[in-house]
Amino acid sequence: MKIGIVGSGLVGATAAYAMVMNGIGRQIVLVDLNKERAQAEADDLYHAVPFASPLEITAGDYEDLAGCRVVIIAAGVGQRPGETRLQLLGRNATVFKQVVPAILNAAPDAILVVATNPVDIMTHLTARYAAQMGVSPDRVLGSGTMLDTARFRALLARHVGVDSRHVHAYVIGEHGDSEVLVWSMVAVGGVPLLEFCNDRGITWNDEIKAGIENRVRNAAYHIINGKGATYYGIGSALARVVDIILHDQRSILTICNPERNVAGVEDVTVAMPHMLGGNGVIGEHNPLSLTDEERSQLHHSASLIKGLITDLIEQEGA
Ligand SMILES: NC(=O)C1=CN([C@@H]2O[C@H](COP(=O)(O)OP(=O)(O)OC[C@H]3O[C@@H](n4cnc5c(N)ncnc54)[C@H](O)[C@@H]3O)[C@@H](O)[C@H]2O)C=CC1
Ligand SMILES: CC(=O)C(=O)O
């Protein structure tokens, strides 16, 4: 199977690396405005192949995306230290106006997976441009809060001393400052978090909870301050999304996709738990039994994103 990656900077190249190391796909094509960078990344990645799985990796142009089953979009700018994801909107929206039609002209049957920030709004825009070319919204998704959900599960897992694959927890809403950690649904091996901690004599209190929440919500700021960018977590998440699509795995992930209604906000794109399979997003998001407070936080998050989407569409005059 052929996979395209448009924007082969840190995120795009790391997603490719995760695919190489996990043997996902058969052919990867890297496209970037900076052709020299794309070629260098393709060459460097290809030298990892003998240590991993047989895969072809090349740099190319949009026409080389023909036949791709999935195209990841990680083109555009990232945050500088102190910047929020939402501050990237204007710059990255301009990039997407050109990139999305170019991808779909070359690969009209591809599923598009957006990583560029602010990812909820970039996914909404992608779905909008794709719809203008006759592509169903099911075939457009963003990484949403997959990374935040992974951060949440990893930190909870460390605290309770359990494999993170057996800690179930969701972060929903904006992939950004207003995201919602769904504490009421956290479970370890099917047992509610508090019950699990009580049974095992694990300390749990408001201070620990606040510490985990802070480290999830502000992870990107800390990492960007320390090393300029985040890419291992998101690269792994993107490779996982591609694997799910290639193998029609029907996995449930906190991805973002255009929604009819999220906590009373209509026609918006924010992350919710969705089933993902070989043809893209399957049906509507899973209904969650949120507390009143969580629902109100989700309403706030979705309203914020909806407001920015509305402004952007008005500016475009579309
Ligand atoms: N969704 C998530 O959870 C995460 C999203 N990101 C986002 O991913 C995006 C990429 O981040 P990095 O890879 O660190 O940035 P980067 O600067 O390393 O790479 C971006 C690449 O996009 C290319 N590019 C720019 N305009 C283009 C165009 N018109 N056509 C094709 N390529 C173009 C650049 O040449 C560059 O190689 C950023 O918006 C960042 O905020 C980063 C981490 C997590
Ligand atoms: C940069 C970003 O969006 C993140 O690491 O969460």
UniProtKB/TrEMBL annotation:
Described function: Catalyzes the conversion of lactate to pyruvate.
SUPFAM superfamilies: LDH C-terminal domain-like, NAD(P)-binding Rossmann-fold domains
Keyword 4Fe-4S: no
Species per Swiss-Prot/TrEMBL record: Phototrophicus methaneseepsis
Listed GO CC annotations: cytoplasm
Subunit structure and binding partners: Homotetramer.
Cellular compartments annotated: Cytoplasm
Any single biological process term in GO: glycolytic process
Official protein name in the record: L-lactate dehydrogenase
Active site: 175 (proton acceptor)
Molecular function GO labels: L-lactate dehydrogenase (NAD+) activity
Domain of life: Bacteria
Residues covered by the Lactate/malate dehydrogenase N-terminal domain: 1-130
Activity regulation, free text: Allosterically activated by fructose 1,6-bisphosphate (FBP).
Binding, NAD(+): 7-12, 32, 37, 62, 76-77, 92, 115-117, 143
Binding site for substrate: 79, 85, 117-120, 148-151, 230
Stored HAMAP family: Lactate_dehydrog
